[in-house]
Amino acid sequence: MVGHKNTIFIVLVATLMAKEALAAQHVVGGSQGWDQSTDFNSWISGQTFQVGDQLVFKYSSLHSVVELGSESAYKNCDLSSAVKTMNSGNDVVKLNKPGTRYFTCGTLGHCGQGMKVKITIGNGASSPSSSPSSSSSSSSSSSSPAAISAALTSQGFASFAVLIVAFSVSTMLSLF
């Protein structure tokens, strides 16, 4: 009976660790970060967002991050419907459910100049799920081969790491 409890515990721990290990952390704007000079259209075109992922906004004191409550507020840069305002310069937003979230800069004029992103979060399927910040639409929604390769490599490594940890815990528990 004790062996079954240990096995159930190990499976539960491994499952929780796998979920966290497979979650991606997206630095909004890539190496340029959350800044007016960043081309958010280029950055977002190669991104896929899933439940459990995190957005990281890195920026100077000239900017802030405002989460908007609707598509209309996003399109019209209407900051009066702000859901949340952040200004630490290193803000982390967890994507905890499927759907669409809207972010912009709270500095006057920055949203209108394109400093905004629309994030569409999938529930675990592997379809591209983001939209560029500008109102012009792009018919290209495929991820680059390099981005796909990087994602598969990091997921493979994460799965391997979870397997090693689960094996280690299992071995330790069997000694007792």
UniProtKB/TrEMBL annotation:
Transmembrane segments: 157-175
InterPro entries, A to Z: Cupredoxin (IPR008972), Phytocyanin-like (IPR039391), Phytocyanin_dom (IPR003245)
Keyword Transmembrane helix among UniProt keywords: yes
Pfam family, one: Cu_bind_like
Glycoprotein in keyword set: yes
A Gene Ontology molecular function term of the record: metal ion binding
CDD domains (alphabetical): Phytocyanin (cd04216)
GO cellular component: plasma membrane
Chain intervals with Low complexity compositional bias: 125-141
Signal peptide: 1-23
Stretches the record annotates as Disordered: 122-141
Keyword annotations from UniProtKB, A to Z: Copper, Electron transport, Glycoprotein, Membrane, Metal-binding, Signal, Transmembrane, Transmembrane helix, Transport
Protein name: Mavicyanin
Species for this entry: Arachis duranensis
